[in-house]
Design goal:
By secondary structure, the protein is mostly beta strands. The chain has helices at residues 2-7, 10-15, 213-216; strands at residues 19-31, 44-54, 59-73, 91-106, 119-134, 140-154, 159-170, 193-204. The protein has a single domain (2-77, 87-216), classed as Beta Barrel (Porin). It has three helices and eight strands. It has an eight-stranded antiparallel β-barrel.
């Protein structure tokens, strides 16, 4: 029993519960030259997977891979048409595969899957890259700066869930096929954005600290 108390103390228990893998599902949408400021414009289904490594109760590192489709048309914004745009309407339709690495900060101490109904809000930021496949032109690679917020909740000792809303500030102004139509430089709209909003569920696949054979005997 003494060996178990030494080996399976709370600090060691957390150290054995660091890795979670899960699925993400939700919606994605675009903001940029065609859509300057309307959230949830033409939302599309987004799906993906994530892997989270919990450094401690406050910080975690998350790797993700998400898929979505983005689209837009300036016919949806007749009051925002620019005089130097082509006479024909501008529209686009793309498929997007987004992959990246993020750091999460938990506002409350959070031990994944250890205590049922334990929860915390969190903030996240990192770096991400996307492969964007256009319907009518060549594909392109886009680098982006993701940031967002969410909440995590333990459902059981193995399963956690949560929701998050993240924005991607890209370093590209051609996602929508329109490049700075007004001729003015703007931090918000000179480069395009895309966003994910959804829920995730994760599973703790390491379970080294479930019991003690010496104690059971």
């Amino acid at each position: 029993m003494g060996i178990c108390m030494l080996v399976f103390n709370p600090a060691r228990v957390f150290s054995q519960r660091k890795a979670d893998i899960g699925l993400f599902g939700g919606t994605a949408y675009y903001m940029g030259d065609i859509n300057p400021n309307r959230h949830f414009y033409r939302p599309s289904l987004s799906v993906g997977a994530l892997y989270r490594y919990n450094i401690n109760t406050r910080y975690a590192i998350k790797a993700h891979g998400y898929y979505a489709q983005l689209s837009g048309s300036d016919l949806d914004f007749p009051g925002l048409l620019h005089p130097d745009r082509p006479v024909s309407p501008m529209s686009f339709n793309t498929s997007l595969i987004d992959a990246g690495l993020e750091v999460e900060f938990n506002f409350l101490p959070f031990t994944p899957n250890l205590g049922t109904l334990e929860y915390t809000p969190y903030l996240s930021t990192g770096i991400s890259g996307a492969l964007i496949v256009h319907s009518d032109v060549n594909s392109q690679n886009v680098l982006s700066f993701p940031f967002g917020a969410g909440v995590k909740l333990n459902l059981s000792k193995r399963i956690s869930t949560g929701a998050e809303w993240t924005f991607r500030k890209t370093f590209n102004d051609r996602m929508d096929g329109v490049e700075n139509p007004s001729g003015k430089v703007s931090f918000l709209h000179n480069n395009d954005w895309y966003s994910f909003l959804g829920i995730f569920i994760t599973y703790k696949f390491f379970n080294f600290a479930t019991g003690c054979p010496a104690y059971d005997e």
